[in-house]
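## Example record

The block below lists the input lines for one assembly entry, exactly as stored, with component labels intact.
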Amino acid sequence: MKAIVCVKQVPDTSGKVAVNENGTLDRASMATITNPDDLAAVEAALRLKDQTGCEVIVVTMGPPPAEGMLRELIARGADRAVLVSGREFGGSDTFATSQILAAAINKIGVEKGDVVFCGRQAIDGDTAQVGPQIAEKLHLPQITYVADVKVEDGVVTAKRMLEDGFMMIQAETPCLLTCVKELNEPRYMSVGGIFECYSKPMDVFDYNALKDDPLIEVDTIGLKGSPTNVFKSFTPPQKGAGTMLEGDDVAAQMAGILAAKHLI
Amino acid sequence: MDFTLSKEQLMVQKMYREFAQNEVKPLAAEVDEQERYPEETVAKMAKLGMMGIYFPKKYGGAGADVLSYAMAVEELSKVCGTTGVIVSAHTSLCAAPIFENGTEEQKMKYLPKLCSGEWVGAFGLTEPGAGTDAQGQQTTAVDMGDYWLLNGSKIFITNAGYANVFIIIAVTGTVVNKKGRKVKEISAFIVERTDEGFSVGKHEKKMGIRGSSTCELIMEDCKIPKDRLLGVKGKGFQVAMKTLDGGRIGIASQALGIAQGALDETVAYVKERKQFGRSIAQFQNTQFELAEMKARVEAARLLVYRAAMKKQAAMEGSKEHYTVEAAEAKLIAARTASDVTRRCLQLFGGYGYTRDYPIERMMRDAKITEIYEGTSEVQMMVISGDLLK
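Predicted structure tokens for the full assembly:
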């Protein structure tokens, strides 16, 4: 039994957001963090490990410095890591990324009892597409927006967080879950984990390692395999501060303001 | 000298910072105000391996190094001096002397429980008439054949109210020294909280580090098994002094953290606070004060890190001892903490004097670092003693 967790290193949007002249994000100048929803996915996998002793494998696609993030996830308790990295993969959109990650997961191998965890969406793109696309390409059942999860006898029972309520749903393993950050409180790295993390295994899957997978073609990966192109990135203008109404007659005051603006 | 932190040390520092910000800082004012030992924080630190940072995995430790331990105390103390000293006293004053002087059986019995945080440790040297002055010791341990009988009391014992294991220094007889004079023979012992005749007495109300549990220990016909002697009989003073050498690195780290924490708070405050139509950060007095404090804190940090690295080298087999480095680090870091917190409070003005801001707490917490585990004057005795030998 394994838990495979897909994670992404993203710019820390609580700091400064820098944009290149061509409109793409200037990732090099921004501090990076592990995507918050993905951290919830890692924590869910680690809790499964606490219960069942299963192996936890963290997978990311990114440039070589993403190793630092993977080592930190090992320091939290993951057993090993896979870094999917190669020039050929650069410029991938969600479609191409999911092709590559699905091929990487195929190479790790998915069997009965295994669970693939993803974060719901990344804070830099907010698409929520990669997880579901991986599930489709691997022909795995998927449960999205997971806010609570239980795995028993090869069956996953998950609570989905929807806009207007919750949905309880079950799926046979292997399956793929996309987790929301409300799912749990991620644990810290431990001192012992940190001092061991560089001695735990980390595989690097480059283009050659994955090229024999039918999902990997020149026109399904990288910039060429990406139907989406970024047209422009910009920081939306800040909205002005709201007006707080006080007193016993706030409804009347508000009606007056709306009427003055010819909105009612 | 290379002060570049390793990848692991940088990672552990990042973890401590996140932990301190999220788990320790929100409780710091309450812990001080209510004079409350933060048991819940200790449990969380235990889970993360912070109660046995530099001890080998074999004994349940995290397998890290002394600098990683010093950085833990520093980062915790940046936001809460109480939490910093809990880790320092537990690690340096209880787990360390057992690790350094204990038999294999003693290490296997105590270290796993101390490192996992299941047990908290403390150290009892100070008495009303004795601290660094070993000949003033009144607590006695008498060999009764198949057990030791301890009588006496200790005061100002950090962690006492919550500790399960105590290193106790006691008089085991008289010997004739090199000069032909009769002197007290001092030995070290491991005492457990549940031992017959052992109890924890009065809880001290203090100026600073108010959440730290500082109490009296009372031994009235306290019976402990023969295998609780720590190290060689008659070498207890050496055990105590060597323990304090390590302890001073912990307290120097605490002082460093308090100073850095006060500086961090002040940098943020002076940018916000406006007087005469501009932020007080724009006044040259503020700028020069901050600049000098920053330089002093960095100087203290270099001394503290050097002492920690020297202790690490000693643990790895180096014959050079770190007594002087530890004393220098503690002397300078403690003075820096007192000086920096006082000057930071001045920049805060009236607000700094209120308990709405953390700076007055930091100033109160800083003072103890000039006193415990050897006063600044004792550190100067150690340094000058080496200089003039």
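The beta strands of chain B are 121-124, 140-143, 147-158, 165-176, 182-192, 198-203, 214-225, 229-230, 274-275, 278-279. The interface with chain A takes residues 7-8, 11-12, 15, 18-19, 47-50, 53, 57, 61-64, 68, 72 of chain B (CB under 8 Å).
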